[in-house]
Every structure is written in structure tokens, then in C-alpha cells.
Design brief:
single chain; 34% helix; 754 residues; six-stranded mixed sheet; 23 helices; seven-stranded parallel sheet; 22% strand
């Protein structure tokens, strides 16, 4: 008798043992998907991790495997190894990784979620007519049925059924279109028994009709960078390509990818956002054609299943372009992973588990395959930059722009002084920004305005009693959305109609504080009547189609002013932008996060680079109340090294990454008092093992989300402290906490390298 250890798509710590029925023994192998019962009434699709002949220590009833789904495994051994690493490093369950990694169509038993192959109706000669002499007689019998004769002739021309080297399948749709004859004529041939229908599976993977072209020749600087990357890969597995905006980083890694394909290896190219995937796909399709695959949550689950199978069984090397989830594909012979915009915060998965960082996971994935990793950014993450400086990664730097494209001129507007002098009393725009916008519009150029908050106003306050309307489920103020005529919570989605008087004192003197993209749009309409302006944020671009519509319309010149959140900084490539305005740089710097200044620099620099992406110089206006701040001065001179040096020295002093590893324990509960007690006790137990590495429990800036109170415990750990040892300590502490009254009511998760 044999048994299988299976992994279930559930947040469970261990595998479970199932008996393999004798009749299934020849068909069950490691990494197969099988249907198993779990609990009283539930069935799941599990993955076989191991097959063995003896069972010991099992305290539950061993049930039988009900069905084997695969004749050939759809999961490979390296994937399982990768899942286990994700679970171990990011302190979650392997079952959670399995559920997140595999397309729903491969792990769901629900009829509406299971994978359904796409079918197409095709035409073929019936068995009695599948002979040249017989078909000649058939044509003779159709002399009086001219349309049927012509349709049959069209079929023979397309299908070439009597020339094996030229014969091919012909669909009903193709035949009707090629012949121009109504389907009723085809039905007549079917009734006569001359032709017959049959169904065939067809791929949903869209094939590129673009003719492949050779890559663009590299400039002298780009060629040197390309050669240096190849030399770096001889010594190190990871290389950081740090190039200023418009330096041609993409052209360089296209050459690197092509060489890898020529060597017979597969390539994974990661992008941070679904929104920019389409644009990059269109660009790369010119060079890779049908070897290019696209994988992300924006495509249908059936398409994801087909791409999964294609990657698993690809006959020729391919390039897969995708977002975070693409790291979970079943790669074979992976030779290179490219992580574009590697600094982007979107590479971190927040909820649900696994809460992992796709850049770091991609580096480990490549290491498991013996592949190389190329990190690409104009403003690298400080972790990657530090590893490059210390020699852990290769480091290639491009400091000159392509051709003669100049850097934009940057102006700093001191809004604190302007407001003090009442110059900006009733406006969001400084005089210099207004002037630059007017000049650009007169010259038929475009304007981008950046404000990283959506909605009309951040807070609605009663002037009489100072009451502020809060969310009933979260510890945040409701944001004013005038377009919707509602107050909205950006955490849980709760909303109420916009009140006309104070709900507490009934006062009608209500003021709005702070501003978002809606208010910017409203003021633009007053300042520039008749000028077409568009807003790009989560309210106007909730779907991929609407996002593309707004961006392509702006790039085509249909709108002259684009107002948006950080969405405008990603994926926009428009040579006609003459002015970029950052309306409130302080809101980026004043976030209570040790990465705030790094991310502010990255985001402001991205927006700055939208202006003047051609030979015509552009202008940038940064509005801030702290014009002398070192970060603003670093942005002004595009001095990434200055920002990085300042931030790294601070992080070393205060024990932050890249010098230390952070792990945050996030505890949530509907009972605030119980949560407080449990959190304090948890911190005491951890302190006994980890000492000063454990900081006192604290309340995050948003202390309640979706009716659950939140507390956190921060661990600052030495980089050389093995994660296995840390996990052992955390598991031990968790087991101790299980004995605490009320702990079962606490929801706990870990955030690693946060």
C-alpha cells in the first residue's frame, strides 16, 4: 500500500497523508494534481509532494485520493522548491503560496471557475468522400448546384486534403469568409454527406501579426553598458543597470534578451503595473513576435491557464512579460530575469498572503535555475544600490541621455512664502506654474499636473464645532468626492451622501481642507476654459480599458492637460509635454515611513522626466513649503547619488534596511482591549528571545481598518541572522501565545522586509 503527502490550497502549515487506491498507483506521481476530500463535505485539488509506503504519527483518519487529474504534471519540482522558499522567507503557509501561484482554472472544482478549452467548429471531407476519384464524381454531381460547387472548391483550395505536405485544418468561419457564400449553402453540403463538422481546441494566446525586426543599433554608451553587463554576468548572478531617464535602458536589455533567446534559454521580464504592460508588449512585439507571452491578472483565467501550459511545454525559447504573479509560472530552462523599474513599490504584494516582494523573489527564482537577473531603474531602490556599491551585484551606470535630448528646467515654488504674502490665497497654482502652463498651451504643447491624492478635499470640517466626518469602519476621515456628491473611505469603500450641514451641531458653515485631483481639475476648468483636460486616478481609470483610453487620448493630443496621481508617472510616453507640475511635494515627504524620502525622490523624478522627452526643452515646477530641503535640491539637480548617500547614512544610524532586516507582526481584532493585552504579552515573549531587536508595540497611523483594530510589533534584525532561526523563534512564540486566553480571536500576519 502506498500513500501520498499532498499540499492543499489552504492556509495550513503541513501536508496531509492520503491513501493511493491500487487502481491509481500507476498514474500518481510527484507534482500531480489530485482531487481529495478534506473535512466533512469539502473537495479540493491538491498537489502530490511525495509518495511513500509507511505512515507514522498520523492522528487523523487517512482518506483516499478520489481522482488523478494529470497524465503529465502541470507543476515542476523547481516551482515547489520556490513555493517553499517563499513560505519560509515571508513567514506564511506553503498552501497560501500554492493558491496564489496557480491559476484558478487549475485548482478550482467550481464549474464556473474551471478551465474551459476554447472550441472552434471546423470542416472536413466526410469519410466516404475522402478520395480523389470520389471527389471528382461529387463535383460532377454539383454542376447544377453552382453555389455548393463553388463552396466545395473553396474548401479544397484552402484545406488541400489530397496533398499531405500542404493540407491543413479549415474552420467554418474561415471557409464562409473566404467564399463569401451564406452558411445555408454549407448546411446543404453537410446534409448531402459531402462535408462534416468537427470540433477542435484553439489557443486563446494572441499571436502577433507584426513582422519581427532587428533591434535598434546601440549608441557608443549603450554598447559599452551592454558589454559591461555581459562581463558582469560572468562573475555575478545579479546586475543593476542604473541609467538616467531617456538613456536607452530598454534598448540595452532588448539586446541582452535576444542573445539569451539565441542561446536557447527562456526569459522572464517583470513590470510593476498592469497598466504599462500593454505598452511594453507592443514595443517588444516588434523584436520578439510570437515568442512574446503576456501574463497578469488582467487577462482571463482561461488565458492564464493556456499561458501556464505553454510556458511548461514551450518548444522554442520564449519571453514572458508580466507583473508579480509571473514569477510563479512553471519555467523550463530559464536563463534570464529582467526586473524593469525595480524600485517600484508595486512589486510588493500586500494582501492577501503571500506578502512577498516580487523583485527579491525573482532574484531567488533565477538563482534556483542558475539564471541571471538584470535589475533596471533610473532611481534604484536603496537596497539594490547598496548591494551594487558593496559588490554583491554588478553595477552598470548610464549617465547621459540618448542623442541631444536636454534635461527639463526645474523651478521651485515656495508655497509657504506665497501663501504668507497672500499670492496663493485662493488658488492651487503658483504664479510661475501658471505662467509656464500658459506658455506651453500657447505653443500647442501639453501639461501634466501631479497630485498624489484623489478626490476633491481630504477633510470636511464644521467651522462651528470642528467636527470631522469619520468612517464608521476605519479610523480615517472620509474624503470629499464632489463628482460623486459623496464622502468616501479610501480604505474600505464606505460612503455617505455629501452633508449640507454638520451632523453633530447642525451648523451650515462647513469648510474643506486639503485637495485632491478633483479640485485641481475644477480649478483648471476655471483658469483655462475651453482647454480639454483629463483626470487620471483610481476614480476615472478603474478598468484597464479606461486607463488606456485616457492615456492614448492624451498622447494623441485630444486633451491638452492631464491631471493625475502617480498613475501619470507610469507608462506615459508623450513627446509633446512641455510642462510638468508637482502641486504638493511635501505630501510625499511627510509620510510616516522610513522610505518616504526615497520614494518621494523616485516619484518626483519620474514626473519631472515627463517634461521635454524630445529635442524641445521642457519645464518642471515643484511646489513645496521647504524649498531648501536636501531632497528637493537633489531632485532639482537630478542627483540620485546625493539622495542615496544621505538616506543610507540615516538608515545605518537608525538600524533600517539595507543594514538591517525588518519584520512587522501585524495583529488585528475587533476588541481593542483584548488586542492591547495580547500584543503586549506577545512582545514580552519575543523580547525574551530577541532582546533589543524587538521594539515596543505601537499603533499604526490608521489604527482601525474594516472594523478591526490594529497593533504592530517591529523587529529589527541583523542581516546575517538566518531567517530559519528567526522563523523558529517566531513559531515558538506563536505556540506559547496559543495558550493565552483570547488569542484565538486575534488575526496575525507577518510583513517581511517591509
Amino acid at each position: 500500500m502506498k500513500f501520498a503527502e499532498v499540499l492543499l490550497p489552504l492556509p495550513l502549515e503541513n501536508t496531509y497523508t492520503y491513501r493511493i487506491p491500487d487502481e491509481m498507483l500507476p498514474f500518481v506521481q510527484a507534482n500531480d494534481r489530485v482531487i481529495v476530500p478534506f473535512g466533512k463535505k469539502h473537495l479540493y485539488i491538491a498537489v502530490v509532494k511525495q509518495i511513500h509506503e509507511s505512515v507514522s504519527g498520523v492522528t487523523y483518519e487517512i482518506k483516499e485520493i478520489m481522482e488523478v487529474l494529470d497524465s503529465c504534471p502541470v507543476i515542476n519540482p523547481r516551482q515547489m522548491q520556490f513555493w517553499e522558499w517563499i513560505a519560509s522567507y515571508y513567514l506564511c503557509k506553503t498552501g497560501e503560496v500554492y493558491k496564489a501561484a496557480v491559476p484558478t482554472g487549475l485548482i478550482s472544482l467550481e464549474p464556473d471557475k474551471k478551465y474551459v478549452p476554447r472550441k472552434e467548429t471546423c470542416i472536413r471531407l466526410s469519410a466516404v468522400c475522402n478520395d480523389e476519384e470520389v471527389i471528382h464524381a461529387v463535383f460532377n454531381s454539383l454542376k447544377r448546384a453552382k453555389q455548393q460547387e463553388r463552396l466545395l472548391l473553396n474548401y479544397v483550395d484552402l484545406a488541400q486534403p489530397f496533398q499531405p505536405e500542404l493540407s491543413r485544418e479549415v474552420s467554418k468561419k474561415e471557409l464562409v469568409k473566404a467564399s463569401g457564400i451564406h452558411t445555408s449553402v454549407l448546411e446543404g453540403l453537410i446534409k448531402r454527406g459531402i462535408l462534416e463538422y468537427y470540433e477542435r481546441e484553439v489557443s486563446r494566446i494572441q499571436q502577433s501579426n507584426i513582422e519581427c525586426k532587428p533591434p535598434n543599433p546601440l549608441t557608443e554608451d549603450q554598447q559599452k553598458a551592454y558589454v559591461d553587463i555581459q562581463a558582469s554576468f560572468q562573475k555575478r548572478q545579479v546586475c543593476l543597470l542604473h541609467g538616467v531617464s531617456m538613456s536607452g535602458k530598454t534598448e540595452i536589455y532588448i539586446h541582452v534578451i535576444l542573445e539569451m533567446l539565441q542561446n536557447g534559454s527562456n526569459v522572464l521580464c517583470l513590470l510593476p503595473e498592469i497598466g504599462i504592460t500593454k505598452r511594453m508588449t507592443e514595443r517588444l512585439a516588434h523584436f520578439f513576435g510570437n515568442r512574446l507571452l503576456v501574463y497578469h491578472s488582467g487577462i482571463s483565467d482561461n488565458e492564464r491557464v493556456e499561458i501556464w501550459n505553454h510556458v511548461l511545454c514551450a518548444q522554442e525559447p520564449t519571453v514572458t512579460i508580466g507583473v508579480r504573479s509571473a514569477v510563479f509560472l512553471p519555467f523550463v530552462n530559464l536563463g534570464l530575469v529582467v526586473v524593469d523599474e525595480e524600485h517600484d513599490a508595486s512589486y510588493r504584494q500586500q494582501d492577501p498572503a503571500p506578502r512577498f516582494h516580487a523583485r527579491n523573489a525573482a532574484i531567488m527564482l533565477a538563482r534556483m535555475y542558475g539564471a541571471k537577473t538584470l535589475l533596471v531603474s533610473a532611481t534604484p531602490s536603496l537596497e539594490s544600490y547598496y548591494h551594487a556599491l558593496t559588490g554583491k551585484y554588478g553595477f552598470i551606470s548610464l549617465k547621459s541621455r540618448y542623442g541631444v535630448i536636454p534635461y527639463p528646467e526645474i523651478k521651485i515654488a515656495d508655497i509657504k512664502d506665497l501663501k504668507r504674502r497672500k499670492i496663493m490665497k485662493d488658488t492651487l497654482f503658483s504664479p510661475v506654474l501658471k505662467e509656464k502652463m500658459e506658455e506651453a498651451l500657447k505653443r500647442n504643447r501639453q501639461v501634466v499636473l501631479f497630485q498624489n491624492r484623489r478626490g476633491f478635499a481630504e477633510v470636511m470640517e464644521c467651522r462651528t464645532c470642528s467636527h470631522v466626518v469619520h468612517c464608521t469602519h476605519c479610523d480615517v476621515c472620509l474624503t470629499v468626492h464632489k463628482y460623486l456628491n459623496r464622502l468616501v473611505c479610501h480604505y474600505c469603500g464606505y460612503s455617505i451622501s455629501l452633508p449640507v450641514h454638520c451632523p453633530v451641531c447642525g451648523g451650515k458653515e462647513i469648510r474643506l481642507m486639503g485637495f485632491g485631483t478633483e479640485k485641481v481639475e475644477a480649478e483648471i476648468e476655471m483658469l483655462f476654459p475651453g482647454v480639454q483636460a483629463k483626470r487620471l486616478d483610481m476614480d476615472t481609470a478603474r478598468t484597464r480599458g479606461s486607463y488606456e483610453h485616457i492615456l492614448t487620448g492624451f498622447e494623441a493630443g485630444k486633451s491638452k492637460i492631464l491631471i493625475g496621481t502617480q498613475m501619470v508617472a507610469k507608462g506615459l510616453e508623450c513627446s509633446q509635454v512641455g510642462v510638468a507640475g508637482i502641486l504638493n511635494a511635501d505630501s510625499l515627504m511627510n509620510v510616516p515611513d522610513f522610505r518616504a524620502h526615497e520614494r518621494a525622490f523616485q516619484l518626483i523624478t519620474q514626473v519631472c522626466n515627463l517634461a521635454g522627452r524630445s529635442n524641445r526643452p521642457g519645464s518642471v515646477v515643484i511646489q513645496t513649503s521647504r524649498p531648501d530641503h536636501p531632497l528637493i535640491q537633489a531632485v532639482r539637480s537630478f542627483d540620485y547619488e546625493r539622495m542615496a548617500t544621505d538616506q543610507l547614512s540615516e538608515r545605518k544610524m537608525y538600524r533600517y534596511p539595507p543594514y538591517f532586516r525588518l519584520i512587522v507582526l501585524v495583529l488585528r481584532c475587533g476588541n481593542e482591549q483584548l488586542l492591547e493585552q495580547i500584543t503586549n504579552r506577545y512582545a514580552e515573549i519575543l523580547y525574551a528571545e530577541l532582546k533589543e531587536r524587538v521594539l515596543p508595540p505601537f499603533t499604526p497611523p490608521v489604527a482601525r481598518v474594516q472594523v478591526l483594530y490594529v497593533r504592530q510589533i517591529l523587529l529589527k534584525l541583523e542581516i546575517n541572522l538566518p531567517i530559519e532561526q528567526v522563523r523558529s523563534i517566531l513559531d515558538k512564540a506563536n505556540r506559547q501565545m496559543q495558550t493565552q486566553p483570547g488569542f484565538s480571536k486575534i488575526m496575525l500576519h507577518y510583513e517581511v522586509d517591509n
